[in-house]
Amino acid sequence: MAWLVHEGTVLASLERADTIRLRTVGLLGRHEYDGALLLEKTKSVHTMGMKFPIDVAFCDGEMRVIRIVTVPKHRVTRLQWGAACAIETEAGRFAHWNVQPGDVLEVRGDLSPDHE
Predict the structure, then answer these.
(1) 36-40 and 9-17: which strand pairing?
(2) CA 74, CA 69: separation in Å to the nearest integer?
(3) What is the rounded distance in angstroms from the CA atom of residue 76 to the CA atom of residue 15?
(4) What angle do CA 27, 55, 65 make, to 5 degrees?
(5) How far apart are CA 75 and CA 64, in angstroms?
(6) How many CA atoms lie within 13 A of 109 on its CB side?
(7) Cβ–Cβ contacts within 10 Å for residue 97, how many?
(8) Distances (CA, A) of 16 to 3, 25, 26, 102
(9) Confidence bin at 116 (pLDDT 50/70/90)
(10) Measured between alpha carbons, how far is 13 from 4 in angstroms, rounded to an integer?
(11) pLDDT of the residue at 102
(12) Taking the model in full, what pTM does it have?
């Protein structure tokens, strides 16, 4: 199991979407989500067909947050140049966790994919 960490504090359990299929599906089909989802090689996300709005933190290759956006249902974000990944969670979580652009996030634990 992996964890999303900020300044030494565990924020949430973390899953990884590391294939095109898993990145495309993301959080679709879920009614709520307590954790965070790491989408590698991602510069934009969509919420088409989503059942709830999400927060997205776009991060560079060092996991420094470039931008955080709240994405309503049935929308697409603009491209975020410089992003190496995106982290999705339920809307309002990044504010609750006091994560802001410029902060560095950390992944701790085993991010081995469940689909292998």
Answers:
(1) parallel
(2) 14
(3) 21
(4) 115
(5) 24
(6) 13
(7) 20
(8) 11, 12, 9, 22
(9) very low
(10) 6
(11) 98
(12) 0.87
- The third-level CATH classification (topology) of the domain covering 2-109 is Jelly Rolls (2.60.120)
Task: Quick: pLDDT tens for 10-49.
Answer: 999 998 876 666 655 555 555 566 789 998 888 998 888 8
Cα distance between residue 99 and residue 21, in whole Å? 28
Mean pLDDT of the chain: 86
* CB neighbour list of residue 24: distance below 8 Å, 6 or more residues apart: none
Q: Which residue bears the tokens 């919420």?
A: 47
Q: First-to-last CA distance in the chain?
A: 14
CA distances to 6, 44, 47, 72, 82 from 3, rounded to whole Å, are: 10, 23, 23, 25, 24
